[in-house]
Request: fold
Amino acid sequence: MVWIWAAFIGFVLLMLALDLGVFHRKAHVVTVKEALAWSAVWVALGLAFAVFVYYGYENRLLGLGSVIDAVDGTTNDGLAAAGKYLTGYVVEKSLSVDNIFVIAMVFGFFAVPALYQHRVLFWGILGALLLRGVMIAVGAKLIAEFHWVLYLFAVFLIVTAIKMLFLETEQSDPNKNIVVRLTRRLFPVTGRFHGEHFFVRAGRPASYESEIPGAPAMPDEVVDKARPGTLLLTPLALALIMVETTDLIFAVDSIPAIFAITSDPFLVFTSNVFAILGLRSLYFALAGMVKKFRYLKVSLAMVLMVVGFKMLLAEWLKLALGKYFNLYLLTVVFAILAVGIAGSLLADRWSRSRADA
Reply:
């Protein structure tokens, strides 16, 4: 089992190295066309991995499928494992789309140049992978030791869904975020962008602004007062900190959601990883269209509610629908998301037609 984990983590590191070291070695503005192409690549990889999951669990490759899944009390064969992986992938992917709204707000507030947004997202997502790996390991251990934790996760998901449906989400000022405030208190922060650098030494010529199209030339009292050689954080670093904080908040929702589908750590981790790996390209593809998806939050709330009730009623559903009831869950999740997206696009088209009339 150790070898399969090592091989998967090695594959992920290789893809990340190719991404930043080869395909995006030079900073550039990611176009919608490029983002859509990369989104297609990551989605294709995520779906192709389902084939490996099927054959790996069907043939018990390197110990896959040898442990009882605490969610439904069965051992996963190829079809069950592939169904749970795909359901988890779709749920995590759809929840990550909601993250795009917040990331767009963060980039807008800090006026992060489009030239360097990819760099922030790359390191932000690398941190997110490490963070979720830890959270998944802890969650799997808790479920293995205390099965009733699953019911706590279920209630948490249902409450979260109700809050998403009925509570207004305010766009808060990132400067009021406790993590950003603490960072500013502990470290000196420059008001200027310095190229793609997250850190800069005081006294270093600030000629990098001319390299950033549209970057604001803000006064920099911090640099003026700091002693030469002092290490300073740049606004790009603050944006990265906010992206990491945002992912931590979203992970609190998404990790219980995937554990509602399966407690198999390999399926949980791999579905999470493939969903997150495509978040960067998905951001650049959808950032300009987030306002069009007005019913997305409603759809995501319904998905969380369905997943939460599925966790509470897993034993009954298995008796009523059979061993592969997770495949029905996948169909329901697809249907909810499709209705939300279609409804958003139709409402947007109707609004524009009324405005033109």
